[in-house]
Amino acid sequence: MQQLTNVVALRPPQEAGDEGINRVLRALRTHLDMDVAFVSRFRERDRVFTHVDARAVAPLKPGDVLPLEAGYCKKVVDGLLPELIPNTAQVPMAMSIPETRALPIGAHLSVPVRLSDGQIYGTLCCFSALADTTLGTRDLGMLKVFAELIADRLEMDQHAKEERLRKHRIICAALAQAQPNVVYQPIVSLGDGTIAGWEALSRFSSQPKRSPDLWFQEAAEAGLGLEMEVRAVEKALEGLGQLPASHYLTLNCSPALLLSGRLAKVISDHDPARLVLELTEHCVVPDYDALSNALVPYRTAGVRLAIDDAGAGYASMRHILQLRPDIIKLDMALTQGIEHDAQRRAMASALIAFARETDTSVVAEGVETTADLLTLRRLGAHRVQGYLTGRPMPLVLAANWQVPRLAELFEPPSG
């Protein structure tokens, strides 16, 4: 199954980095008992205040811009002002700076923020309205340590930004090439050996070569997760009209897609009784009540809900208990080799018994051997999906697919 990453709870890397730097500023300002602490970034002709923490109302805010030569920062970097000024009244150049009296600034500390390649990003500064003659070299040393921490954080954020842009370019290129492609895998009834439905699965031919779950994960990390999911659903639905009318189609959906409201428009022109929305074990659900509410209009219209990977982990069981699906899909880790494994049989039997009590149907995935199929049929599974009954295939094959060489398996036992 394709793993779809929930992006609802994710924050952009830059936002997370800003929060870390703001905490550093707050700790520094509080420890030194200063009124304002800030980080400024040098540009060609000006400097911008990127992060600001203040005791009360700050005289400046993030995003404010001043000429590069204004204030203290550039003068400190150029060696015209000392990094530590306990009392600005004792430094004539400091007193000549308009901001000293306007703010006012009674004590000031400032050090360069230097990146690992030696480049000066800007400065880390703090000041108070009153002079503070207790400030000394140990305080300045602490400021330099904090500046190194901030430089590390800034470089990490820059790397994350570059990585996000790289991923964004790759995903955009894949979307421009009409990716993903969609293949269909049959879901076969254990009652009579006929095809009951199909699961639509995404495949990617673009570079780099990797599994579909990694493509969807990277799309989410690039901020394009919903676009990739919507594209996959749209392409899957293009084939619904060419599949027999008695067959249903299973669509992999993340909680983020369901909560976004975008899915309703995509499926609005299709028979809801033929659609199944599938959530996997790997989907993170931050709010089951919100997801249940989002599912109400779909399920009221006749769309069914499936929970994938049952038996693979705790999350799938939570999905089942919280969302009350129409279909439970047993994970291949549970079904493969089940004929010879008593523990697998016991677990599968328990899930099938649960499904029977809750009027839920069971699809066993990953079925590759006749022995496993017969065991699952004996345990009470309703349908199977796997290489034994059909590999994922293009629509042109799916439209006329016949389940191979299994008719004898579904005949009533003799005698």
How would you describe what is shown here?
- The structure is a single chain.
- The two termini are 40 Å apart.
- It is elongated, with a radius of gyration of 31 Å.
- The protein has two domains: 13-162, Beta-Lactamase (2-Layer Sandwich); 177-410, EAL domain (TIM Barrel, Alpha-Beta Barrel).
- Residues 1-16 have low confidence and may be disordered.
- By secondary structure, it is an alpha/beta fold.
- Helix content is 40%, strand content 20%.
- It has an eight-stranded mixed β-barrel, surrounded by four helices. Strands 3-2-1-6-5-4 form a six-stranded antiparallel β-sheet.
- It contains 15 helices and 14 strands.
- Helix 10 (288-301) links the parallel strand 10 and strand 11 (304-310).
- Helix 1 runs antiparallel to helix 5 (137-176) and helix 5 crosses helix 6.
Per-chain topology:
Blueprint: H1 13-32, E1 36-42, E2 46-54, E3 65-67, H2 73-77, E4 84-85, H3 92-95, H4 98-102, E5 107-114, E6 120-128, H5 137-176, E7 181-189, E8 195-203, H6 212-221, H7 225-237, E9 248-252, H8 255-260, H9 262-267, E10 275-279, H10 288-301, E11 304-310, H11 314-323, E12 327-330, H12 332-335, H13 342-357, E13 361-365, H14 370-379, E14 383-385, H15 395-398
Parallel strand pairs: 8-9, 9-10, 10-11, 11-12, 12-13, 13-14
Antiparallel strand pairs: 1-2, 1-6, 2-3, 4-5, 5-6, 7-8, 7-14
Helix pairs in contact: 1-5, 5-6, 6-7
